[in-house]
Design the sequence.
């Protein structure tokens, strides 16, 4: 650490951050070395290179050869000294330059990437053992370090340097095929993204970050009071549902329309779920039902939109978007919720929780499912007929059949 830059060390800034009730983290890029440094001048053989050829610079950097045990020992000593001196809660481990001319002097210039990767894993293992309270964040954009070997060692990943929420929906959709939601670093960026130039609403940006680590990467001094208040609502909601978001079983529904995603998390005991519908682009298709798999078929659940919170006077009347509606797990898994027509680049988040006996008596009626399905199926003509047939096959007894037929007849007249 440079005494010229930090004459008092890091303690003053660490103390200031901690005094605000926050955790303090450091960004490391330990595998890189500047050619104009004492380390390189004293040990040039420690870099990845091929024969006598001068190694290729990128970003004013060369790459240290972690296939050498002495390099691993040196980096462990340097990093461990910093982590032991200051109260550091997490480390972001980056690797920003490509590996070119990546030969190893220990192997007579033969490819050195695999031995260096093994050395990286050994170094991280030693640091984790020495500093068990530190959280370690690896970088998918820096070095592509998001493979199964790193997942065993890291606590979180920076999923991509692209913070545009529309791009992130697609990035996170496919990254979560392998990596659980709670590992994915996802941040709320500025209204106009500095990488794509695209302007996206605050609700869409927050909803995109909601299932990941939900950080903020936005100069809030530039935000309006209304934006800060809205962001506070989202942060409160994230903290409320974080335990569920980061502990349950993830699901991603197959949707025939590429303009929309349906995904969520169900608790291990099947009593609760949180689920999102993201409308990425405009569509000419009928909206597909919003189904929630993984619940107990015979249990009853209260379903309610929780974010974005509805604003007065929006003119939309959907029972599950207000006070909520009670449905069985079977209905939610096979029939689902009907979704209102949506604008592009919008996202709704619904909470599903096992139904409570404290709800009003009217909500405890045995025909709640039936009435709900008829209500929820009015947005398009073709789906409600299929829903009616499914319910009629499952239900026995004239009372259920007649209620459904009468309800559907009234819908047709209107």
Sequence:
């Amino acid at each position: 650490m440079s005494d010229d830059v930090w004459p008092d060390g890091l303690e003053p800034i660490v103390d200031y951050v901690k005094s605000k009730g926050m955790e303090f983290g450091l960004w490391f890029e330990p595998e890189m070395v500047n050619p104009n440094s004492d380390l390189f001048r004293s040990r040039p053989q420690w870099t990845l290179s091929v024969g006598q050829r001068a190694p290729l610079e990128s970003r004013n950097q060369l790459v240290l050869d972690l296939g050498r045990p002495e390099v691993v020992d040196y980096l462990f000593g340097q990093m461990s000294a910093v982590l032991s001196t200051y109260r550091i809660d997490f480390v972001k481990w980056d690797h920003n330059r490509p590996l070119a001319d990546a030969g190893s002097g220990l192997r007579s210039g033969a490819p050195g990437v695999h031995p260096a990767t093994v050395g990286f894993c050994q170094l991280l293992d030693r640091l984790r053992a020495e500093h068990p309270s530190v959280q370690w964040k690896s970088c998918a954009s820096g070095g592509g370090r998001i493979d199964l070997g790193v997942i065993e060692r890291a606590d979180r990943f920076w999923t991509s340097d692209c913070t545009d929420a529309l791009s992130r929906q697609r990035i996170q959709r496919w990254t979560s095929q392998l990596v659980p939601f709670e590992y994915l670093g996802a941040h709320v960026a500025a209204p106009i993204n500095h990488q794509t130039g695209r302007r996206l609403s605050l609700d869409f940006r927050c909803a995109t970050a909601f299932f990941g680590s939900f950080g903020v990467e936005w100069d809030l001094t530039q935000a309006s009071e209304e934006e800060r208040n809205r962001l506070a609502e989202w942060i409160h909601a994230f903290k409320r549902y974080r335990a569920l978001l980061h502990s349950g079983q993830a699901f991603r529904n197959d949707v025939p329309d590429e303009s929309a995603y349906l995904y969520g998390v169900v608790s291990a005991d099947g009593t609760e779920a949180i689920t999102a519908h993201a409308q990425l682009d405009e569509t000419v298709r009928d909206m597909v039902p919003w189904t929630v798999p993984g619940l107990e078929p015979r249990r009853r659940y209260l379903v309610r939109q929780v974010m974005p919170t509805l604003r007065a006077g929006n003119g939309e009347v959907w029972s599950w978007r207000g006070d909520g509606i009670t449905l069985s797990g079977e209905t939610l898994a096979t029939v689902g919720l009907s979704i209102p027509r949506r604008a592009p680049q919008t996202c709704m988040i619904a909470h599903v929780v096992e139904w409570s006996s404290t709800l009003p008596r009217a909500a405890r009626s045995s025909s709640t499912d039936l009435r709900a399905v008829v209500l929820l199926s009015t947005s398009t003509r073709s789906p409600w007929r299929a829903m009616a047939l499914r319910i009629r096959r499952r239900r026995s007894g004239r009372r259920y059949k007649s209620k459904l037929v009468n309800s559907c007849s009234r819908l047709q007249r209107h």
